[in-house]
Target: Solute carrier family 41 member
Amino acid sequence: MSSKPEQKETHQANGTVLPIVPVDCLPSPDRGQLVEPSDFLGPDGDGVEVVVLESRANAKGVREEDALLENGSQSNESDDTSTDRGPEPASPLKETSFSIGLQVLFPFLLAGFGTVAAGMVLDIVQHWDVFKYVTEVFILVPALLGLKGNLEMTLASRLSTAANIGQMDTPKELWKMITGNMALIQVQATVVGFLASIAAVVFGWIPDGHFSIDHAVLLCASSVATAFIASLVLGMIMIGVIIGSRKMGINPDNVATPIAASLGDLITLALLSGISWGLYKELESKAYVNPLVCAFFIALLPIWIIIAKRNAATREVLYSGWEPVIIAMAISSVGGLILDRTVSDPNFAGMAVFTPVINGVGGNLVAVQASRISTYLHMSGMPGESSETAPRKCPSPCSTFFSSDVNSRSARVLFLLVVPGHLVFLYTISSMQGGHTTLTLIFIVFYMTAALLQVLILLYIADWMVHWMWGRDLDPDNFSIPYLTALGDLIGTGLLALSFHILWLIGDRDSDVGD
Model:
């Protein structure tokens, strides 16, 4: 018995599979009619064996002579009634380098200007009393800004994948995905905000050996309130972006994660600064305000947990999705410790304005790449399934950046956006007279070297990490982006601090690093 893809054309009637006959084979002038099984004969006069199935008929149950199969293959493929679907990837992945770059460019620039605005805000608020006398707030900055990677970017990647594979096509499915995911990120935001405040207290206490209970409660209230409100606002924005992208025919993977960060850094940092400043003012006269704020947001946790548990799409993440966000928060907090120790030194005060920019750009680009690779893998199967698209071994840099597949193409496009993007952002900062640093040639060279090295490392790690998690039966949409953006914060802050130290040591006084 032979089987070919063209043999799928069948007619289903009362559980009986009838072959569709080419018009030239019909014995009567009534073209297009189906002959009865008893009347259908092959070229040699042999009858055709017709398989009757109790369930829905499958084209593979029909066996015909080779000559008939060849004739049947000439029929129009648009009449195929088979429910079998091939593994060919959906259209969003059939993209050229130009189309990828065009779709990524606008949200990338938008996200970059958002990080520039966040840097300008941090440059201003670092001189506020709350940042001067409760310096642990600096440790909260990367951890809370990293929530866009831990929560909002993960939400964007999860919803982008669901939209691309058709899980948000009906209003009922869409509503379920929205309510479940919004409740989930509120749970995660509250818990991660609380843990981030504990990490800030510990990292601030270890070097100095000084602990203040009032400052600890202030950090807790500021962190939890900021995380909750920022995640609520950004989550709603993300849902609107993904729905709009699908209606406009744009791949959500290319635009959702950068837009998640475009306002994410600015909104989060503005909320953190405003809330911490307001609560700091209340410490002396109304000391009970800070504990009440903490208790209020923590008391809302059971409501969000119940809503998230009722949704099958978020129930698993609610139970198993804590490891990446908590570890990512800890990694970002280490970057915050580096920021705290560097910015507190008057010689490196100018670093504050550039930290959200370099961290934000690196995190945005790697989040796009991780989301694209995850969607590509989801279209070929489920996590843990053996697939040629999911190698378990560590890839080589050549296969990550110089192969012909679509993910390598997108990695090259994203890497090429680093230099022009940062030049635009640096010029914007300089024109707005932000920071304490004059943009000299040597400063730009060191800054660009740090930015390129950061993105190069992140894109390579993303290629390995997403495939490794897929092979370990872990959904990369839920696990990879928190790690990658947290590593982006740590690598970016570390490389930037190293660049400022080198510039100071070699005596680049023209850049006014210590002004």
